[in-house]
């Protein structure tokens, strides 16, 4: 195969000599348009639109008027439109192909959900409106809360957390309040967390004033039950377990873990980031869990980067329901209303006010739309299809890549880097070569308990045909690695708008703002 500076064929087994592509005068490569920064293309001396000259009205800024014009480039409407369209064409998106990031649930975002979230009465309401004017929105929140309680088998839910980590904080604060109420907070300072836990788990525990004790995994990638029991004691406040866990495996000993922790007086917090793998199949409330957050923006559409904030409602068992935070929503026969002050909260011992307002309305609308569109049977099928797709990927790739653990997986398939040993190619090189094949890489090097991890989550919205194209590409890349084509991997990506970065330097010396080449000239303008 002929190497060249512009790239190499991406078809596995294609060894035909490649013509060296000549450089272009513009830097463009056909439809791959070279696009500078907007500051590099705009004209600082003028504006892209015609504006009337300001009148002689007196300034009313109290002496805070600008000393000079802002350093903004003046572009016309066509120029601005072309700039952002060209930038959008350099981005990978879920609407272009599979987004296999593990533990992130990058699924298709149904456009119906977006249409509902933009309905008047949902999109244009204000959190300080009188509650009598937003009864429909409050009813929607209440109905969504009902679905969440039914799906999880939990009697209470706090709707206000803004994201998964915020939901964790809510659950752990409820646990802290419950310990304080029974007089145990001074002695129970230890939280147990498996080594494969999401990084937010130990961080949240520390933020709530606890210390963290790591629990190792067994050879099967699950919590080592014997090691867990050795660390139990009357100083344990809680355990935080992700289930299905970050290795893509269901914790088979979940009931035994819950019973053991409860026996010593601790609470069980479950990270519900992967709830999409078990919704409709297993209810956390039946597994002995006391608190669990749910990422609405993952399980019930609008994946990460979907254009809006997240939402992490936290379901609570009877043991923690009285300590749910304010504000809370009730229906008293005359309509729906929010309880926003402790003096009005006769039903419980709220640990305090978690946020200024009650949640993220756009995410509530999207999530309930997703639920009503699927129905209870459809949500169950979505979980089944997610697990089926992940196991299909696991089965297809197991012959050329090395699964981290034996047996079936849940919603994501985890591989380690043993298949790359002795090739001179690392996990990061494999990921960069995937970009040339037209795929966003899977989650790399996580979880940390697996060497050179490659974590793939296909989600339920991927077709078999799409999964086959993805798997064929990875099988081809694995074959190239075994064939000694090291230079291909070290040079990748070669077809991307930008070549491989010096990632260490980018992390340690990031350039976070544009600076003009001649600051004096710009100031003179």
TrEMBL record:
- What GO annotations for molecular function exist for this entry? glycine binding; glycine dehydrogenase (decarboxylating) activity; pyridoxal phosphate binding
Catalytic activities: N(6)-[(R)-lipoyl]-L-lysyl-[glycine-cleavage complex H protein] + glycine + H(+) = N(6)-[(R)-S(8)-aminomethyldihydrolipoyl]-L-lysyl-[glycine-cleavage complex H protein] + CO2
Q: Name one GO cellular component term.
A: cytosol
Record domain Glycine dehydrogenase C-terminal: where: 382-482
Q: Which keywords are on file for this protein?
A: Oxidoreductase, Pyridoxal phosphate
What processes in GO biological process is this protein linked to?
Answer: glycine decarboxylation via glycine cleavage system
Entries under SUPFAM superfamilies matching the protein: PLP-dependent transferases (SSF53383)
Query: Known EC number(s)?
Result: 1.4.4.2
Q: Any idea where the Aminotransferase class V domain is?
A: 187-305
| Enzyme kind, highest EC tier | oxidoreductase
Segments of this protein annotated with the region Disordered: 1-24
Out of the domains of life, which is the source? Bacteria
Purpose: The glycine cleavage system catalyzes the degradation of glycine. The P protein binds the alpha-amino group of glycine through its pyridoxal phosphate cofactor; CO(2) is released and the remaining methylamine moiety is then transferred to the lipoamide cofactor of the H protein.
Instruction: Name it.
Output: glycine dehydrogenase (aminomethyl-transferring)
């Amino acid at each position: 195969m002929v190497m060249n500076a512009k790239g190499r064929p991406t078809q596995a087994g294609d060894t035909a000599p490649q013509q060296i592509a000549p450089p272009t005068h513009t830097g463009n490569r056909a439809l791959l348009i070279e696009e500078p920064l907007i500051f590099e293309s705009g004209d600082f001396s003028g504006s892209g639109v015609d504006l009337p000259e300001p009148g002689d009205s007196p300034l009313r800024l109290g002496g805070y008027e600008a000393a000079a014009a802002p350093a903004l480039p003046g572009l016309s409407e066509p120029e601005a439109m072309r700039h952002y369209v060209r930038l959008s064409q350099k981005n990978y998106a879920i609407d272009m192909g599979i987004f296999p990031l593990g533990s992130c649930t990058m699924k298709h975002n149904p456009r119906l959900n977006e249409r509902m979230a933009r309905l008047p009465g949902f999109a244009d309401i204000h959190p300080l409106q009188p509650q009598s004017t937003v009864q429909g929105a409050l009813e929607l929140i209440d109905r969504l809360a009902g679905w969440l309680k039914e799906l999880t088998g939990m009697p209470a839910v706090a709707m206000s957390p803004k994201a998964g980590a915020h939901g964790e904080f809510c659950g752990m604060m409820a646990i802290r309040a419950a310990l304080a109420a029974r007089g145990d907070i001074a002695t129970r300072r230890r939280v147990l967390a498996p080594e494969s836990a999401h990084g937010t788990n130990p961080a949240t525990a520390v933020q709530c004033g606890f210390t963290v004790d790591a629990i190792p995994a067994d050879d099967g990638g699950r919590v080592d039950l014997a090691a867990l029991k050795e660390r139990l004691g009357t100083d344990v406040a809680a355990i935080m377990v992700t289930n299905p866990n970050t290795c893509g495996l269901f914790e088979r000993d979940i009931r035994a873990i819950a019973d053991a922790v409860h026996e010593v007086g601790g609470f069980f917090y479950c990270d519900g980031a992967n709830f999409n793998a078990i919704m409709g199949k297993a209810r956390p409330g039946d597994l002995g869990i006391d608190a669990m957050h749910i990422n609405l923006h993952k399980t019930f559409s609008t994946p990460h980067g979907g254009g809006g904030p997240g939402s992490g409602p936290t379901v609570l068992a009877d043991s923690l329901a009285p300590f749910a935070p304010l504000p809370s929503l009730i229906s008293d026969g005359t309509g729906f209303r929010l309880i926003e002050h402790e003096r009005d909260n006769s039903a419980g011992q709220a640990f305090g006010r978690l946020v200024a307002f009650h949640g993220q309305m756009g995410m509530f609308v999207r999530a309930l739309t997703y639920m009503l569109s699927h129905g209870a049977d459809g949500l169950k099928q979505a979980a089944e299809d997610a697990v089926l797709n992940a196991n299909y990927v696991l089965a297809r790739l197991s012959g050329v890549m090395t699964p981290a653990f034996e047996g079936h997986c849940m919603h994501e398939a985890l591989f380690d880097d043993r298949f790359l040993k002795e090739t001179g190619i690392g996990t990061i090189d494999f990921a960069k070569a995937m970009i040339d094949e037209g795929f966003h890489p899977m989650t790399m090097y996580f979880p940390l308990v697996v060497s050179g991890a490659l974590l793939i989550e296909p989600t339920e919205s991927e077709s078999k045909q799409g999964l086959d194209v993805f798997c064929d590409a990875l099988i081809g890349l694995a074959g190239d690695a075994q064939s000694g084509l090291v230079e291909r991997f070290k040079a990748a990506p070669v077809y991307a708008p930008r070549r491989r970065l010096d990632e260490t330097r980018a992390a340690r010396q990031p350039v976070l703002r544009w600076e003009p080449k001649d600051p004096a000239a710009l100031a003179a303008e």
